[in-house]
């Protein structure tokens, strides 16, 4: 059970409507105007330092851990230096758009249009990227074959070296970087890191001052003592390394807020929290601190992660609906010598989440052959709550996948996740995850249309064209992604964050310049389930059974099955031919072969940082907008209808032989190649997981998932009737959390399209 404080903090966080704050944008711009002629690194550092020195700060009622990005909870902040144009276009629709709504005052609208937009027009990263993209890449993007992402905001999708932060402290890091800067006075990276570390110290001191002022003005003796503790701890961790769990959590959260000011990026993720925080927790226990108080601290921290929401464009919000901030944590897993890393804090993290039950942090659990039954049952117990948290990752697949990419064994065993399901090595990887999404089903559609009048078309020749097109468009996707990569380097380096990534200090380079140890570019292949189903149905209906000519079939699809007899054709396509997700080799192998081709093509290419492109297969919530740009398909799917959710999940309602058959279908994919991450959604009815027997069945199912060598799985445990009631009376279900894709969100904050998708997913029983 939560304490009264935790319940009050939760209530306060969601009491007011979401607003847009222009404060960071205005401060950043003010500094930027004063640094004309200086290098980008120095300008970025000075602008962020200026924000840290001048942004309004607050310590809210009941808070034990200080640090807020904005005065108002859950406010979105704008980054016009990245892309000023989309904000201008949406100023008048933020409150009414279908997804991720925000309030912005008329006064702030005027400020944006009169001050920020004129300055950043033709000065932004977006301007550079748009000017560099060649016509053939633009044409492919326009055809919706692939998208190039991260062109309008900070990249993020990274985990800093929290051991470096917590083990050294900011004062020692300033001394280290000052020495390096003096030794290499021409190195702007070192200079910029010093500027930002010193600004971070000043920023934390501002909170210490505020806490002292608030304590002096407080008439509540208990609150006064809490504020003095915040002041004392803040004063210490501003320069010294923390001692104990409270101090470690406070410095940890301050740095998370500061890094948000630097880049305003999604998925500055939290890594293996139970590993790097364990010594501090043990120290507090050894010193006799109350376990109940330490748990309340942890629950307070979990609530803080829900305070950060991202301001996205309407288009981006369709792909990342429901504010997936990406405060992702993986628990358990392996240690550096390959044994189980589960510890007391692993369990406490799940216990704290069971009390809080909010979308963030996006907890996951790493499973392996050494995982003990007790922690697996605790994991199943948490999943049964129905929030979609934790998700599950398989060490038996992910570790070899990283070894295949040249990662050392010890580093591979230390993997975690950024964002939703993107695989990364904490403190060592700049993966440029989510840089592009590739719509495999769209490639099939275009190949079919191109052959509509070809009398000699056959299934084999069509399949060869699809394979050739995948190769062609992967090359164009890489070209566009690399231009975006250079855009982040030249317009938006992140020196403070880089100083917490291995080898950047040794190399004297920002991560965007290739300073990190591992430099990947992550892209996603989308639509594998629909592709498998469509190819199989096309092969059977047209080429084997010869129920119509290929041209007649194309006419039927182009009409969205509106030709005479079209509904009968659609019914046959949907119901008479086997579908992916039912352990049918003939169907599953079609998608497996093409996904493997996509992966092998992607991994051939390098990025400007000297790293390798790495493939994945997950959709976030993009299966809805990606489906909207594909016409009717041979699996019976209507024009504009969503694609299969998740990435590797079967199409809605097509997995009819139970959840184990789904696992077997997905196991036929070459999961070791999907080193950027993959996603499988499974939905269970609550009744099937009731009691101790239900938990045992779920635990056994997770073990089966592990042994079948799948990479990822996550669960929704909800009745469709409950979700339908939440649609009808959202005010009665404001706290209902569901799994969307690689993240959870409040159901009532999702668009109706995505709500309907979640309702329609097959609910299995064990």
Automatic annotation (TrEMBL):
All copies of domain Glycine radical, residue ranges: 646-766
Class in the EC hierarchy, top level: transferase
Keywords in alphabetical order: Acyltransferase, Lyase, Organic radical, Transferase
Organism per entry: Photobacterium rosenbergii
Residue list for modification Glycine radical: 742
Highest rank taxon of the organism: Bacteria
Identification of the protein by name: Formate C-acetyltransferase
Pfam families for this protein: Gly_radical, PFL-like
GO MF term list: formate C-acetyltransferase activity
Domain annotation PFL: ranges: 4-638
């Amino acid at each position: 059970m939560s304490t009264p404080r935790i319940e009050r903090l939760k209530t306060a966080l969601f009491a007011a409507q979401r607003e847009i704050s222009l404060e960071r944008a205005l401060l950043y711009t003010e500094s930027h105007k004063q640094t004309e002629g200086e290098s980008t690194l120095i300008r970025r550092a000075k602008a962020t330092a200026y924000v840290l020195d001048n942004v309004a700060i607050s310590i809210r009622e009941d808070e034990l851990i200080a640090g807020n990005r904005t005065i108002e909870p859950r406010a979105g902040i704008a980054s016009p230096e990245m892309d000023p144009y989309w904000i201008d276009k949406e100023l008048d629709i933020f409150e009414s758009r279908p997804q991720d709504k925000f309030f912005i005052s008329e006064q702030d609208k005027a400020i944006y249009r009169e001050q920020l937009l004129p300055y950043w027009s033709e000065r932004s990263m977006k301007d550079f990227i748009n000017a560099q993209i060649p016509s053939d890449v633009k044409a492919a993007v326009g055809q919706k074959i692939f998208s190039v992402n991260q062109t309008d905001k900070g990249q993020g999708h990274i985990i800093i070296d929290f051991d470096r932060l917590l083990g050294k402290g900011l004062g020692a890091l300033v001394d280290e970087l000052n020495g390096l800067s003096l030794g290499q006075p021409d190195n702007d990276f070192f200079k910029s890191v010093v500027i930002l570390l010193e600004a971070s110290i000043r920023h934390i001191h501002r909170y210490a001052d505020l806490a002292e002022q608030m304590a002096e003005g407080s008439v509540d003796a208990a609150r006064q003592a809490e504020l003095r503790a915040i002041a004392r701890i803040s004063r210490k961790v501003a320069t010294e390394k923390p001692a104990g769990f409270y101090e470690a959590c406070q410095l940890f959260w301050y740095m998370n807020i500061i890094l948000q000011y630097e880049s305003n990026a999604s998925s500055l993720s939290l890594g293996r929290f139970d590993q790097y925080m364990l010594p501090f927790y043990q120290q507090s226990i050894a010193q006799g601190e109350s376990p109940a108080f330490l748990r309340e601290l942890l629950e307070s921290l979990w609530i803080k992660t829900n305070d950060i929401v991202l301001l996205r464009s309407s288009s981006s919000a369709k792909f990342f609906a429901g504010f997936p901030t990406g405060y992702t944590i993986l628990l358990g897993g392996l240690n550096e010598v390959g044994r189980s890393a589960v510890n007391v804090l692993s369990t406490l993290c799940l216990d704290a989440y069971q009390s809080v039950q909010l979308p963030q942090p996006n907890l996951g659990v790493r499973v392996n052959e050494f995982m003990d039954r007790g922690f697996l049952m605790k994991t199943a117990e948490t999943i049964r709550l129905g929030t979609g948290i934790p998700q599950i990752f398989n060490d038996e697949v992910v570790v070899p996948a990283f070894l295949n990419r040249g990662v050392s064994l010890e580093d591979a065993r230390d993997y975690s996740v950024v964002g939703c399901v993107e695989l990364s090595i904490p403190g060592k990887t700049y993966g440029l995850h989510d840089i592009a999404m590739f719509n495999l089903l769209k490639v099939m559609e275009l190949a079919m249309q191109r052959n509509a009048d070809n009398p000699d078309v056959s299934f084999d020749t069509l399949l060869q064209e699809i394979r050739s097109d995948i190769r062609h468009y992967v090359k164009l996707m890489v070209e566009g992604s690399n231009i975006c990569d250079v855009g982040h380097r030249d317009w938006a380096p992140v020196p403070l964050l880089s100083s917490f990534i291995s080898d950047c200090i040794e190399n004297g380079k920002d991560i965007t310049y290739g300073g990190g140890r591992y430099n990947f570019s992550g892209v996603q292949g989308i639509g594998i389930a629909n592709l498998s189903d469509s190819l199989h149905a096309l092969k059977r209906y047209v080429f084997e059974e010869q129920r119509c000519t290929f041209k007649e079939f194309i006419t039927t699809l182009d009409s969205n099955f509106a030709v005479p007899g079209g509904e009968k054709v659609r019914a046959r396509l949907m119901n008479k031919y086997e579908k992916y997700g039912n352990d049918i080799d003939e169907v599953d192998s079609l998608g497996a072969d093409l996904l493997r081709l996509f992966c092998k093509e992607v991994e051939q290419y390098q990025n400007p940082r000297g790293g390798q492109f790495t493939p994945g297969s997950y959709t976030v919530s993009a299966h809805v907008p990606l489906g909207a740009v594909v016409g009717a398909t041979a699996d019976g799917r209507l024009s504009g209808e969503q694609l299969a959710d998740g990435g590797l999940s079967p199409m809605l309602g097509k997995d009819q032989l139970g959840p184990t058959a789904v696992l077997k279908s997905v196991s036929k994919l070459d999961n070791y190649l999907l080193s950027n991450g993959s996603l499988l959604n499974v939905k269970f009815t609550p009744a099937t997981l009731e009691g101790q027997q239900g938990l045992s069945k779920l635990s056994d199912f997770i073990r089966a998932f592990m042994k079948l060598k799948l990479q990822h799985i996550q669960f929704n445990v909800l009745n469709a009737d409950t979700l339908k009631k939440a649609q009808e009376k959202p005010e009665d279900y404001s706290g209902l959390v569901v799994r969307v894709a690689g993240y959870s969100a409040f159901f009532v904050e999702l668009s109706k399209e995505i709500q309907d998708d979640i309702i329609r997913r097959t609910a299995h029983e064990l």
